[in-house]
Amino acid sequence: DGLKQCLSEFKQQLAWVERLDMTSGQVVDPVLQSASDKDAVDPENDFQREMSFYRQAQAAVLEALPRLRKLQVPTRRPDDYFAEMAKSDQQMQKIRQKLKSKQEAMERSEKAKQLRAMRKYGKKVQTEILQRRQKEKKNMLNAVKKYQKGLSDKLDFLDEEQTSSQGNKKGIASQRIKKGPNAKRRYKNQKFGFGGKKKGSKWNTKESFNDVSSFQSKVAHNKGPGKAGKGGKKALNKRPGKRARQKMKSRAR
After folding, report:
1. Could you tell me if residue 11 is left (phi over 0), alpha (psi between -120 and 50 degrees) or otherwise beta?
2. CB atoms within 10 A of CB 106
3. How does strand 34-35 pair with strand 28-29?
4. What is the pLDDT of residue 172?
5. Which stretches are tagged as biased composition: Basic and acidic residues (predicted)?
6. Residue 188 needs a FRET pair 20 to 30 A away by CA distance; which of 26, 31, 61, 200 works?
7. How far is 148 from 136, CA to CA, in rounded Å?
């Protein structure tokens, strides 16, 4: 009686939107498509017990959402919603730096592995080339010894050596021909020409000395129009020199 009296004292008659309490009955099992029996759930089986709680909460949500929509209560988080993080920015920055350092260490280790693999491959190729050269040298020496001792009269090893050397020379020459001048050299050739003799290009020759067809006496002796020569108009207005002016002053005195 006392408990009921206390309950009646602090109990408040509020609307459902203020309480949001839901009471769900038997929950339908999605696998069996039938209502799950309370006695069928073994309380000692953790999986069955948790699944029954999950289905009960899901049924309550499916029943409460339509009621909230009828009351025009928003049930989705807005796009511009910002909530306080559980961890501070400093702690998150430390975590980011730690993850970044781990990633950089992994990248460095991967690069080191690649370099080691490339070195191993290079050493392998180098050893193969050295072994091949040693084998060729050994075969050639054996052939020379046989020829000296008279066991063989063939000189094929000399032909092979000459053909190999000629092939190398041809390959180098073809590379040089294919390469050609670079872009800078081609631009200078186009702009300045391809060289040639520059010194003495303006010297007179016998033919140019005897050719006087382009000679003009008026231009040569400054007698043409507009020239400031002896017979020109500008010679009359020419100012006398300094010494001539001094002599003129001394005479006037």
Report:
1. beta
2. 10
3. antiparallel
4. 60
5. 101-113
6. 200
7. 18
Residues of the chain with pLDDT under 70: 26-39, 153-179, 194-198, 221-237
Total H helices, total E strands in the chain:
9, 2
Spell out a b/e string for 34-57, using b for 16 or more CB atoms within 10 Å of the CB, else e: eebeeeeeeeeeeeeeebbeebbe
DSSP assigned state of 31: T
Other CB atoms within 10 A of residue 27 CB: 19
Q: In this structure, is the dihedral angle defined by the CA atoms of residues 192, 196, 200 and 205, taken in order, positive or negative?
A: negative
pLDDT for the residue 80: 84
Direct distance between the N- and C-terminal alpha carbons of the chain, in angstroms, rounded to an integer: 153
Q: What is the DSSP letter of 11?
A: -
pLDDT at 100: 93
Query: Contact, 10 vs 20, CB < 8 A?
Result: no
What are the sequence ranges of the domains in the chain?
Answer: 1-71, 89-154
Residue carrying structure tokens 């029954």: 52
How far apart CA 41 and CA 135 sit, in angstroms, is 83
Beta bridge mates, 29: 34
- The H-assigned helical ranges of 150-181 are 156-179
Cα-only R_g, the chain: 55
CA distances from 186 to 61, 173, 196, 198, 232 (A): 81, 20, 16, 20, 52
Residues with Cβ within 8 Å of residue 181, at least 6 apart in sequence: 189
pTM over 0.85, yes/no: no
The whole-number pLDDT of residue 125 equals 87
